[in-house]
Amino acid sequence: MLLTLDNESATLKLGKNISRYCPNNAFIIHLLGELGAGKTTLTRGLLNGLGHQHYVKSPTYTLVEHYHLNARDIYHFDLYRLADPEELDYIGLDDYHDNRALCLIEWPEQGGNVLPSPDLIISLQYQPKGRQVSLKAVSEQAQDLCQQLRQDYSAQSSA
Q: What is the per-residue DSSP string for 125-141?
């Protein structure tokens, strides 16, 4: 699925729309894109859609920020500063993956083969105006999510 987002508001809205269709069981989203492409903005929209009303910061220095919303654990990772994928063992990466956790992982390529496979891969790229966003469903749950989003966005563009 390919979308063009004109501005920050559109990126926040996409995050909120994704939150509407995220399954309630374990779900992993990889966020790809250059610095400033909108990965944290998209995450902020998703967290806002799940009920978080406070500031959302990129966990560049802490590696992970934890949120507990609607009886669910959500972990926002930023692996940009990770020097070696083995460092993920030191933060207890396996402990973050339970049967209901939602994991949002920025810079997953820094995690190498240590990271679990994603359900959904979201790539954000700069465009002359706004951003181009690609959503790639890896799991069946993500295929359902993308189908719902596709219906929403096609209904909006035809209105």
A: EE-SSSEEEEEEE-SHH
